[in-house]
Amino acid sequence: MLTVFQDGPGRDRAATDGGAAQSQPRSAGPAAPGTAVRPAIRPILITCPKGLPPFLQEEVRQMGFPLRATGEAFVETEGTLADTLRLNLWLRTGHRVLYRLAEFPAASPDELYQQVTQLPWEEYLEPDSYVRIGASVHSTACRDDRFASLKCKDALVDRMRQRCGRRPDTGAEYRGASIFLFWQGFRCSLYLDTTGESLARRGYRKIPLSAPMQESLAAASILATGWADNGHFINPMCGSGTLAIEAALLGLRRAPGLLRRHFSMLSLKGFDPRAWAALRAAAEAGARPALAHRIIATDIAPAAVEAARKNAAAAGVERHIEFSVCDFAATPIPPGGGVVFLNPEYGERMGDAAALEPTYRRIGDFFKQQCQGYTGYVFTGNLELGKRIGLRSTRRIPFFSSTIECRLLAFQVFAGTHRPLSVANTQERDSRSAPSTTDGPAAGP
Ligand SMILES: C[S@@+](CC[C@H](N)C(=O)[O-])C[C@H]1O[C@@H](n2cnc3c(N)ncnc32)[C@H](O)[C@@H]1O
């Protein structure tokens, strides 16, 4: 049987069955053997947090997908529904992989209902399944996300009842299939959300502690350093261990999606478990058994190191990270160079900014005195505190941690040639750069 995942007749029928409501897919290539139908390609929108599109874009490009568009918090590519499996398995910096089913005008909730009933939901959903319908509305036609998703839900279940005699259950949980509506002005885009719970939730953070870095942000900030097991990765102030764990996953070329059990795509009609199992098996087989360099993670708080160790065990990388409890300045720095990456508190959520000044000063001293031959990185949401480091930053890469604007500051620490920085002399430009592709091998498959 051909299924929507195999891009067979069901999908091409879907392209015409809904009339004007459907977005027209392109063909992905030659017809599948024994059929006259060719795989269909549709736009795929990958959402991410603000600040991450340059990194997500690079990941998408390295996976061989074309770039159609990029925005403040998304990257758009195109592909088949089967391609979404690979994206969900491998992306480190994306949050949701949305496969576009239709685009249509709607000037009212009733028009939305009419359009959504025309879509061939029975080709994507089992009648006895469970579906979540989310919406993001920026329109004078409807001011309430919940009302828009309710209208979508009514249209979808009415269509399913009419075609199948039964309808799926619906609700707010991510435990089945997932649909997402963007309604901007009078234009609607309707997607199959193939991900469900954000990809940032890898599933390994069993003990988050306070102020942990989001996993996708940690991955992007490591990609920004160009680290890919091409030197040691030293992470003093490791907290719950997110940076060290993401570095280990990246260095070992492990697909982050291997850690998750649930993806909404697994509940779509026609999902092929064998194709998914084969992709996972290939990803597992392609991972490296060991790192060529060391990952060292330390924290002054024993509870943090304990949590980081447990989280690393949940991620399956505990044996690749050397953990210990110590002040950051006592972290062992092995010869050979690499990256020293600190994410100190910055006074927004924990601690007080003024009280943190001596810590930032000491970070500068630590870089100068102990990290020669390394590149030092400080991820902070307080640029004033960043200046207390007292070294000239060579790059300032903008990020956001939820709504807080942050910078990843880079400090090149050459043996004996550090240049001290006067506090006033900080007029360097932000560097909005994509991850380096020359610093190391690809992060993905
Ligand atoms: C913002 S948290 C790091 C969060 C981490 N990136 C994560 O994802 O969980 C800062 C960490 O620095 C640690 N810390 C504060 N002062 C320190 C010091 N002098 N030496 C070592 N660690 C310190 C704290 O215990 C805390 O775990």
> What small-molecule ligands were found?
S-adenosylmethionine
Q: Any idea how many domains?
A: 2
Structural class: alpha/beta
CATH topology of the largest domain: VC0802-like
Along the chain, the helix and strand elements come as HEEHEEHEHEHEEEHEHHEHEEHEHEE
CATH class of the largest domain: Alpha Beta
**How many helix segments?**
11
First CA to last CA: what distance? 29 Å
Give the second-level CATH assignment, the architecture of the largest domain.
2-Layer Sandwich
Mean pLDDT, all residues = 87
In helices, the fraction of residues equals 25-40%
Strand content: 15-25%
Major sheet characteristics: 9 strands, mixed
Overall spatial form: elongated
> What is the CA-based Rg, rounded?
24 Å
Regions with little confidence, pLDDT below 50 for 5+ residues:
7-22, 30-38, 417-430, 432-442
Strand tally, please? 16
If you had to describe this structure to a student in words, what would you say it looks like?
The chain is an alpha/beta fold. It folds into two domains: 4-193, VC0802-like, CATH 3.30.2130; 215-252 and 294-412, Vaccinia Virus protein VP39 (Rossmann fold). Helices cover 29% and strands 22% of the residues. The protein has eleven helices and 16 strands. The strands form two sheets. Strands 1, 2, 3, 4, 5, 6, 7, 8 and 9 form a nine-stranded mixed beta sheet that branches. The chain has a seven-stranded mixed beta sheet with strand order 12-11-10-13-14-16-15. β15 and β16 (404-412) form a beta hairpin. Residues 7-22, 30-38, 417-430 and 432-442 have low confidence and may be disordered. It binds S-adenosylmethionine. The site of S-adenosylmethionine (SAM) has 20 residues, from α7. S-adenosylmethionine is lined by residues 209, 211-213, 236-237, 239-240, 242-243, 299-301, 304, 327-328, 343-345, 359.
